[in-house]
Amino acid sequence: MRSGRGAQSGAGRADAERRGLWLPPCFLEACLAGTMNVPELRSRLSQAGQAHLLQFWPELEEAQQMELYAELEAMNFEELHVFFQKATAESSQAQRDGMDARMEPVPREVLGSATRDQDQLQAWENEGLFQISQNKVAVLLLAGGQGTRLGVAYPKGMYDVGLPSHKTLFQIQAERILKLQQLAEKYHGNKCIIPWYIMTSGRTMESTEEFFAKHKYFGLRKENVIFFQQGMLPAMTFDGKIILEEKHKVSMAPDGNGGLYRALAAQNIVQDMERRGVGCVHVYCVDNILVRVADPRFIGFCVRKGADCGAKVVEKTNPTEPVGVVCRVDGVYQVVEYSEIALATAQKRGPDGRLQFSAGNIANHFFTVPFLRDVVKVHEPRLLHHVAQKKIPCVGPQGQRVKPDKPNGIKMEKFVFDIFQFARKFVVYEVLREDEFSPLKNADSQNGKDNPTTARHALMSLHHCWVLNAGGHFIDENGSRLPAIPRAANGKSESITAGVNYNLKDANDVPIQCEISPLISYAGEGIESYVAGREFHAPLIIDEDGVHELVKNGL
Fold first, then answer.
1. Binning pLDDT at 50, 70 and 90, where does residue 94 land?
2. At residue 496, does pLDDT exceed 70?
3. Rounded mean pLDDT of 469-477?
């Protein structure tokens, strides 16, 4: 396992890593040797218009001076100035430009659909499993975010949403990889590996690595779990001044999930993929509890279409749902944020009654490795940063801590979908939200959404459907069978992923506690031997140890 970290040591390195700084060893050695060239640094800062960063220098302890010196020495102020100028200019231009007249919906010829193309699903699935069996598929997890909005200080992937098993997001995803490797071997006879690349940030790197080591990589081989770190950028005021978080620390933030491409280059990740013979990569975000990691249908669809870039989407629930839309703008594919689309445009419907701009982006993508190589080597410098106005805690003129009540600066970030524009063949794959998308973003609250409760219910409702579809039934406390109705039409699926037309749900649609381990079933396949013809009380757990009905007195 390789890790994208520098060669610093001791407390200095630990703090640098926590803050996501890439501090060359020579800077730290110079500090330790007492050879900080403060006059030269002052001159650089003055030329860059950032002299305020040393305004509290005389008040700092020696260790704090060393930390701030190393932090500032590692910054390229000229590059930051260019980033700021281009990002703010692009933001102003975007506000002036009318997006609606330039937008076109995704054309049907590049769209694959789990509901509209059911006659193709088995072929796509077979192709995906074949690619996996040949060691041609890797997955790349975007896991740089902390669970701040969840009310925790650790990475989101370590969060337990309260399932009966108490599995974390990391464990659920790792077990899906393990199961998919087994399925590919079962169908094609080859032992195979799906390498798992995990992009962290300075804030999550150390704790993520420690968590995986503590849990023995959830059954995966250590050398096939590759951690690397995205970059960090300083927060800036609206006029381009770098913000101090404390007297001796700059306010830093990850450079967005689009920082992936610069990180791939800096830490030779694409070369590692090529060395392993990987042909394509499934990229996704950590917070979707329903994510089908390395989904063989999605992989197979993209491969059969000859695509170098693909996006998995869900249909928007309504015109005003706050989700970005995959579409064409001036003939080029991109994601347009909901705030940039006029209501009249968002409400447009086609002859079939569906929203024209319905392809909701869920940060779930397919890239070929040659395409990623071109992005890293050729296109990445052309990507512009997006501006997000934020309330940024900072140090006031007198050195006091300030927690603003309105935006006082910007954070600059790139988005993972910014590279759609460079694709030679771009495709879109539409799936059902209830099967594949339930993000975890917020803490539990009354009438809240995208929180631990909604994520937990989404997974258990899906697993409940799997049981019904495989011939099992649930009964109430009186022993009466809960009636089941089709989600769509009746039928039966031979594929490893149960088709949407074959899923059942209980007529009363009350959430039932039901959890099936990914080690038992990747997407609903193979559970007939556990449940067919049987009746269950909830809560129900099906795992490697068998079938368990949890009751008040225990198992």
1. low
2. no
3. 93
10 Å CB burial of residue 117 (0-12, 13-18, 19+) is middle
pTM: 0.88
Is 99 within 8 Å of 340 (Cβ atoms)?
Answer: yes
**Count of CB atoms within 10 A of residue 152's CB?**
14
Asked whether residue 491 carries a pLDDT value surpassing 70, the answer given is no
Which residues are paired to 197 by β-bridges?
A: 140, 226
Angstrom distance (rounded) from CA 194 to CA 187: 16
Q: Which amino acid is at 396?
A: G
Q: What DSSP assignment string belongs to 86-127?
A: HHHHHHHHHHHS--GGGEEPPPGGGEEETTT-TTTHHHHHHH
Find out whether 231 and 22 touch, Cβ atoms under 8 Å: yes
User: How confident is the model at residue 97, as a pLDDT?
Assistant: 62
Asked whether the beta carbons of 401 and 395 are under 8 A apart, the reply is yes
Burial class of residue 99, CB neighbours in 10 A (0-12, 13-18, 19+): middle
Nearest to 537 by CA among 477, 497, 491, 492: 477
The rounded distance, in Å, linking the Cα atoms of 60 and 54 is 10
Sign of CA dihedral 301, 519, 278, 207: positive
Q: How far apart are CA 152 and CA 203, in angstroms?
A: 13
**pLDDT at position 425, please?**
98
Give dist(CA 380, CA 70) in Å, integer.
Answer: 27
> Which pLDDT score is estimated for 15?
43
Q: In angstroms, rounded to a whole number, what is the distance separating the alpha carbons of residues 224 and 117?
A: 34
CA-based R_g, the chain, Å = 25
Count CA atoms within 13 Å of residue 442 on its CB side.
Answer: 9
Which candidate, 30, 164, 208, places its Cα nearest to that of 539?
Answer: 164
Give pLDDT tens digits for 201-222: 988 999 999 999 999 999 999 9
CA separation for the pair 262, 79 (Å, rounded): 14
Band (pLDDT 50/70/90 cuts) for residue 504 is low
Output the six-digit token pair for 240.
Answer: 């381009």
Backbone angles phi, psi at 169, to 5 degrees: -60, -40
Tell which residue, 254, 194, 196, has the closest CA to residue 229.
Answer: 254
Residue 12 has pLDDT above 50, yes or no: no
Nearest to 323 by CA among 270, 268, 363: 363
Residue 65 carries which side chain, given as an amino acid letter? Q
- HSE of 198 in the Cβ direction (CA atoms, 13 Å)? 30
